[in-house]
Input
Amino acid sequence: MRIDPAQHSWRFNEIGADFELIDAWALPAEGSRSDFDDLVEIFIHLNPRHQGGPTRMLFAVRGWLGRRFSWDDSVNTLPIPGCQESSLRQRLPPDLPAAKVEAPDDSPFRPVFLVDDEYATEISNNLLHAVLHVGWMPSASGTYSGQLGIYVKHRGRLGRAYMAAIAPFRNHIVYPALLRRIGRVWESR
Output
């Protein structure tokens, strides 16, 4: 289910206000305040390339296109579009510590920060700089629920065209499969 992340004032907005929110989803994860660590752990070890069916095929095609057109030759090394920094970690204020978690070796994502109710991780290539933001939103009943936001800065027209071209695949195949997988892992923990 799509959500409106403006319901909450996230710390991410302090360092990523120049990024565009392109996707926002409610996650199939609910629990107490202390359960957020479990949700972060799921995301750290969740690699969409390892899913089955259509999602695996889409990531294989994307990998082939990335190699063919050199989209991934500069993974996590280029400056953020329009900026000097190559990582959002360089924008962190003193009271927002860098994440002290390590991504698995096969993950192209780099953790940015982790606090009690937010986790941000980033990826950069020749098309864009993107941030995956996971939030733990309190409800009136005292429980919490997970939210996922994807923020992007495009590298020119090609990056913008690429994101527009893959939008139907993200919204109708990749995210629904990802949400089902998160829900299964969340329930089985």
User: Anything to note?
Assistant: DSSP finds four helices and five strands in the chain. The mean pLDDT is 91. Strands lie at 20-31, 110-115, 118-124, 128-138, 144-154.
